[in-house]
Design goal:
By secondary structure, this protein is α/β, with parallel strands linked by helices. It has two domains: 1-311, ABC transporter type 1, transmembrane domain (ABC transporter transmembrane region fold); 330-547, Rossmann fold. 63% of the residues lie in helices and 11% in strands. The structure holds adenosine-5'-triphosphate (ATP). The site of adenosine-5'-triphosphate has 12 residues, from helix 13. Residues 330-553 form the ABC transporter domain. InterPro entries: AAA+_ATPase, ABC1_TM_dom, ABC1_TM_sf, ABC_transporter-like_ATP-bd, ABC_transporter-like_CS, P-loop_NTPase, Type_1_exporter.
């Protein structure tokens, strides 16, 4: 894991980190005072308390209370700071993902990204808060304990550094295996989540094809492999901290035994007790640091995955480019294009659509009709040729301005589980009642929306499942019409309508579409009647170009 990238992300939380560091130093100093005070109290007891122990006892109690309070404060502050840092990291990841090219989304799994930005990040969160809360104070306490051991009895204390390599080897061996298993377990969990997501989306298909048992069996397989890997990894994690703590305790016993033999007989009982307590104190940070090392190995995988996403290149055209709204002259000039690793879809494709023309594009399935729109919107870039809007290459537009000026009603309406109003106003949350009414009317949606139980405020379920296919399509139409863009694209948008509704829609649209450039991808006769011009595509080329119904009327 790149520690530098973690530190860079921690930079905005400097103030909180500083407060945590100060409290941590205080906490370590208090912790280190305890063996000293306890040693002198115990020494006093053994020597028959010739001196007054009251102050030492009071200080010991105060030190214990202060140490507890500081530990609590550091834990809470660390959890708050790491929580903030992670919320920012998650948001950064999602923001970045939204700006990645469509090609990235088509080749990657949404489930993987979902798992890394949601539950996987918990590893990172636990590591960060544990590191901030524990690591510095444990390191300081360990260093302080070693120094004080040397101060009390250097000859015996010399034994302490000799055991360090043993810890190092144990940590490396277990840590490596832990990282490997951790990675495999996380991948298995990501697959499981992804599969669950797909399975939930497929419930209607699963039911209609009576595939329930098979789907459950496949899920159970994924769940079992995830369980096994997580168990192995949990066993190893459970081993790491306590094993290292045990090694440290054994080493402390050795030091104590050695102290009994080699300690200067002139030492007071108080010094002897303090020495033994410091040796025992040393075991605590060693165990805790080993545990942190395990978390570090684990969190590293998550950070690497997040970093991999964050290093994917954003699509160009967000930061700069033409933002003026075009009027709608479209030219495809000798455009060729192939999806990565696929045969060419468009070959030397040329088409000029003057502003205000309604053009219908027809052609067999897979002829490349929708691909034309993806290229116009800059979801993909042509391999050769040029696409221009008002004489300017579409690549020279700021991508959001470009896309806002082209309203698309897709084949499959992308609706979400909000109200009808929220779905229609998706691109324009502040749209007024009049604009909304007009869009509903043009999309022939007023009647059915009014008849819904709560009208515009009716919630339509995931992907709009509580509506009919035609109703969903009308919502999508209303959404595109609401924006009133200069270019409109209907990609088989009327396919869900019955012929009567399609006729009515076409009639209504005649006026509404006037003056706009409209691309209708359709085979429907009524829609064809709406066009000034009908072209037919075959194998990525125009094979026919003739006047449409509108031209004749
Ligand atoms: N994201 C993609 N990655 C790879 N190949 C794709 C992708 N999208 C479409 N294709 C392929 O490109 C070709 C053209 O697809 P396109 O969707 O443009 O056809 P279409 O004319 O709109 O078809 P339809 O009438 O069926 O909607 C098809 O062979 C399709 O398999």
């Amino acid at each position: 894991m790149k520690l530098r990238s973690l530190l860079r992300r921690a930079a905005p939380y400097r103030g909180q980190l500083l407060a945590i560091s100060l409290l941590t130093v205080l906490s370590s100093v208090t912790t280190l005072a305890i063996p000293w005070l306890a040693g002198s109290v115990l020494g006093g007891v053994v020597e028959g308390a010739t001196t007054d122990q009251t102050w030492a006892i009071v200080l010991l109690v105060v030190a214990l209370v202060v140490m507890t309070a500081l530990t609590i404060a550091v834990s809470i502050l660390s959890a708050a700071a790491s929580g903030r840092a992670l919320a920012a990291l998650r948001t950064e990841a999602i923001e970045h993902v939204q700006r990645l090219p469509m090609g990235y989304h088509h080749r990657s799994h949404a489930g993987d990204l979902l798992s890394v930005t949601t539950w996987e990040v918990v590893n990172l969160s636990e590591f960060l808060s544990a590191t901030m809360a524990k690591a510095p104070s444990q390191v300081l306490t360990a260093i302080g304990a070693v120094i004080l051991l040397f101060a009390i009895e250097p000859r015996v204390a010399l034994f302490v550094p000799l055991v360090v390599p043993v810890f190092y080897i144990a940590l490396r061996l277990i840590g490596r295996r832990l990282r490997l298993l951790g990675g495999q377990a996380r991948d298995a969990d990501a697959t499981l989540i992804s599969f669950a997501e797909t399975q939930l989306e497929l419930v209607p298909a699963t039911k209609s094809f009576a595939m329930e048992e098979q789907m459950v069996a496949r899920f159970a397989q994924h769940a079992e492999s995830s369980r096994q890997l997580n168990l192995q990894q949990a066993r190893l994690s459970a081993l790491l901290g306590p094993l290292i703590a045990l090694l440290a305790a054994l080493a402390a016993i050795a030091v104590i035994l050695l102290a009994g033999v080699a300690m200067d007989p002139q030492r007071s009982p108080a010094e002897l007790f303090s020495f033994l307590l410091y040796a025992a104190l040393l075991t605590r940070p060693v165990g805790a640091l080993a545990d942190l090392y395990g978390r570090y190995r684990f969190a590293g995988g998550t950070l690497e995955k997040l970093e991999a996403v964050l290093h994917e290149e954003e699509e160009p055209g967000y930061a700069s480019g033409e933002t003026a709204i075009p009027r709608g002259d479209i030219v495809f000039d000798a455009v060729s294009f192939a999806y990565p690793g696929r045969p060419e879809v468009l070959t030397d494709f040329s088409l000029t659509i003057p502003r205000g023309q309604v053009i219908a594009i027809t052609g067999e399935n897979g002829a490349g009709k929708s691909t034309l729109i993806s290229l116009l919107l800059q979801f993909y870039r042509p391999d050769a040729g040029r696409i221009a809007l008002d004489g300017r290459d579409v690549a020279s537009f700021q991508v959001q301005a470009l896309r806002q000026s082209v309203g698309v009603v897709p084949q499959r309406a992308l609706l979400f589980a909000g109200s009808v109003r929220e779905n229609i106003c998706f691109g324009h949350p502040d749209a007024g009642a009049k604009v909304l009414e007009r869009a509903l009317r043009l999309a022939q949606a007023t009647d059915f929306v009014t008849a819904l139980p709560q009208g515009l405020d009716t919630r339509i379920g995931d992907h709009g499942v509580r509506l009919s296919g035609g109703q969903r399509q009308r919502i999508a139409l209303a959404r595109a019409l609401l924006a009133d863009p200069p270019v409109l694209v209907f990609d088989e948008a009327t396919a869900m309508f019955d012929s009567e509704a399609e006729q009515a829609f076409v009639q209504q649209c005649r006026d509404a579409l006037a003056g706009r450039t409209v691309i209708l991808i359709t085979h429907r006769p009524a829609s064809l009647a709406l066009a000034h011009r009908i072209i037919r595509m075959e194998h990525g080329r125009v094979v026919d170009d003739r006047p449409g119904g509108q031209a004749r009327s």
